[in-house]
């Protein structure tokens, strides 16, 4: 598997495990914050389908090769 490192494979497995285990959580926010926040806390609102479609955001990463042994992230 050229291009895949053990670190990438482990990260993918960890993410998959986190997502599959949290699918069955009744209150994901409470579970994530150990009860500090909940989906019933003041100011927390469940978004409708239309509101979810309007959410914008994301995270972009890139690598740029400077030379044979230098990479900038």
TrEMBL record:
<protein>
    <recommendedName>
        <fullName>Bacteriocin</fullName>
    </recommendedName>
</protein>
<keyword id="KW-0732">Signal</keyword>
<feature type="signal peptide">
    <location>
        <begin position="1"/>
        <end position="25"/>
    </location>
</feature>
């Amino acid at each position: 598997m050229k291009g895949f490192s053990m670190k990438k494979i482990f990260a993918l497995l960890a993410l998959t495990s986190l997502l599959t285990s949290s699918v069955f959580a009744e209150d994901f926010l409470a579970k994530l914050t150990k009860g500090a926040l909940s989906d019933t806390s003041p100011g927390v609102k469940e978004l409708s389908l239309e509101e979810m479609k309007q959410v914008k955001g994301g995270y972009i990463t890139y690598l740029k090769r400077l030379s044979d042994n230098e990479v900038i992230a």
